[in-house]
Design a protein that fits this description.
The protein is an all-beta fold. The protein contains no helices and 8 strands.
């Protein structure tokens, strides 16, 4: 059960992987009145055709102003097949704190659509 002003968080953002199989997504709350309390971040890549995933992408998850080593939360060698992390739990994502959640894929199938999904709760103030 959620408290007044606290609602479920289930946000996704796609990106088309470039000619090298790389892509990046950045997500954050819509406005200064909203804060995210994520419990899980999930990454996946949709197969391009009936042959499925050809090149398994790696994916790194960051929380902060930029996707740099200091802001690395978790990484997976299975960024195409689907993987998730709960290492965002306990963080507050908002315009005045960890401003963004980033997902950075490398080495996937060019032209495939990669998606970052964040779940948890969000607070409206």
């Amino acid at each position: 059960m959620t408290s007044p002003g606290v609602i479920p968080l289930n946000e996704s953002e796609p990106v088309v992987l470039d000619s090298q199989g790389n892509g990046m997504v950045q997500m954050r709350p819509d406005g200064s009145h909203e804060r995210w309390m994520p419990t899980m971040a999930a990454v996946s890549v949709a197969p391009l055709g009936p042959d499925g995933i050809v090149n398994e992408a790696t994916c790194s998850i960051y929380s902060g102003q930029t996707p740099t080593a200091a802001n690395l939360i978790d990484a997976t060698l299975r960024g195409s097949s689907g993987n998730n992390t709960d290492r965002l739990a306990g963080r507050i994502i908002g315009r005045t704190r960890d401003a963004y959640v980033w997902a950075v894929w490398t080495g996937g199938d060019p032209g495939a659509v990669a998606t970052l999904t964040i779940t948890g709760t969000k607070t409206l103030t």
